[in-house]
Structure formats: C-alpha cells, structure tokens
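Cont'd.
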Amino acid sequence: MSTIVEPRPIDEEKLNAFVGRVVEEVGATFNAALVVIGDKLGLYRALAGSGPVTPEELAGRTGTSERFVREWLNAQAAGGYVEYDPADGTYELPPEQAVALADEGSPAFVCGAFQLATSTIKDEPKIREAFRSGEGVGWHEHHHDLFEGCERFFRPGYAANLITSWIPALEGAEEKLRAGATVADVGCGHGASTILMAKAYPKSRFAGFDYHRESIERATARAEAEGLADRVRFAVAPAKEYPGSAYDLVTMFDCLHDMGDPVGAGRHVRESLAPDGTWLVVEPYAGDRVEDNLTPVGRVYYAASTMICTPGSLAQEVGLALGAQAGEARIREVVERAGFTRFRRATETPFNLVFEARP
Ligand SMILES: C[S@@+](CC[C@H](N)C(=O)[O-])C[C@H]1O[C@@H](n2cnc3c(N)ncnc32)[C@H](O)[C@@H]1O
C-alpha cells in the first residue's frame, strides 16, 4: 500500500542559498582538471617563489602556449589559487598556495587529491553501469591516474605521521623495527609506506604485497631507485595468499576496506604473524554512524568509496564492501572475526584512524 506524501513547501531563500553554494562547487569541479594540468605541466612549480609573472613569461618557462596559460591563470585567480595585479597584468602564487600546490614533500600537498578525484570522472561510465548491474569494478580496471593519484594523495599524510606518530603508538613495535624486524606491507600500492618505513629502520627487512601488478612494478622500480632493493622487495600477491611467516609487523594502509574478504585477509595476517607480532591497520577517519561522517572529510571519503572502494570490494570474492567510512566498530568486528583477541585505536589524525591488533 502506498501512502500519499504531502510535498514540502519550497523555501525560496533556502533554494537561492543552495544554488549560490552550488555555483561555487561547479567552479571547483571545473577547476579540478585545471589543477591536474597545472600540476602535470609544472605551471605551479614554475610559479612557486618566482614573484609576479605575465602569462607570456609563465608560458615561456614551461614550454606551453600563452593563450591557454592566460585563460588558466584567470581561472586560478577567480578561484583564489593565484593573485592577479591589474596594474601590470601579472599573476603570483602566494607562498601558502605554493606549499599546497607545488611542494610534493609537504604534508599540505593537495595535487594528488585532485588527480585522484579527476580519475573518478574518467571512470564514471564504468561505475554508472555498476550501479545498474550491482557488479563490482576492480582496482585494476580504473584509469592510471587513480593509482598515481592515490599514492600522491596518501603519501603526504604517511610522511608526516607514520614514523613519528603511528609506529610509536604501537606496543613495542618501534623497538623491534630499530633492532631489525621483518615486515609485510599488504595492499601496498606503489609502496610509499613501505619505502618510508625502510628508510627509517635500516636494520629491518620489508616485503610489500599487492594484487595489482602495475602498482608492484612501480613500487619495485621505486625501491631500486632509492637504493633499497637489498632490504625491500615487492611481489604480486592477494592479501589472503602473500608468502612468508613469523612477521613482526604486518601493515595495511588504507586498503583493508578495499578488500572483498577483509576477514579472510585478517585470518591470513594472523597465520603469518610471529606469536607476539602486531597488525597495524590504518583506515580512513570515520565515526560509526552515517551522521558522524556528514563532514567535509566524510564527504570526500563517501564519494571516493562510491567510485572506488565499494566497487573494488564488490569485484572480489565475498564482496563485503565495508566502504571507506566503515568506522571503528565494524573494523573491530572484522579483526575479531579474523581471530585477533586484542584490538585498540592506537592513535588518529583528521584523515586516518590507526588501529593495532594483536593475536
Ligand atoms: C587505496 S589503495 C592504497 C594503496 C597503498 N596502501 C597506499 O596507501 O598508497 C588500495 C590498495 O589495495 C589493493 N588491494 C585491494 N584488494 C586487495 C587484495 N585483495 N589483496 C591485495 N591488495 C589489494 C589495491 O590494489 C590498492 O593498491
């Protein structure tokens, strides 16, 4: 039986306020491609610290066309990304924007987030089809910008927190790593976290695993370029089947919720750990209830989860589809079902929850 619902009256003021806000959002959405262009063509890097420049000067320094660069700069100025001086027709990247847009080593670097976000627009037809079919779309089926954007999105946070805060928050792990431990970094992607740890703990040995071959090839090349190949190796392996045993530490950075069978993956972690080993699980920051996550950060994660994480998990066996906003209670449930008896939130940042699980 269907009930008749009285339509809610339109509040003109609220409608206008919403449309006004959306104009800003549409501008930001268009700007996403412009940020990726500015990043990939080195426009922001050429602007950083260079003082006021004309479009012609910027085009000359970057080997690009003046007419395109002028239009791009006007869009950047309208969005507050660069400053425009009408007196002499020059544009300048303020120092704060230079850190966020041109300094890849800064924790505030944001270009990876834009690369990640625009990759989902490229994959929109695949995901739209998945909405209809209910089938998954695997990580490996996405545009290349997802893999690179993901690494560049997460790396600044790992560089700022992993060695100084997350590892020290675990019981006894830092001492073991300093003395010489064996570590498996599962779902390692391009290996950003593996390489950070390997550099910080030169007496330890690291194995990075991911089911995605292209990512493992990239990670392997990175380890070789950094001169770490003797202590760091990468191999293609799904989380339920990676080789090795008696690991002191198994880590999963922003990937447990991407897996189809996180409980099965956890069971394998349990089997592969030393009796006093530690499983470090880093997950996107989230509360347990939807209403806890209706925030700017939650919005980013729910959107990424719709386009990437949920279809990725559904493409694998079991297809639990935890989503990127699973929250502590669901992660605890997964970890306990996997056979771990001790579980706690070790620490957190505005973007991540850091869990420690022990057998
Ligand atoms: C969001 S990315 C995170 C990558 C990396 N940990 C990082 O922080 O940059 C998720 C990763 O999990 C991997 N992945 C998903 N399911 C997996 C599975 N069942 N076994 C191994 N890796 C998996 C994907 O290939 C992808 O590299």
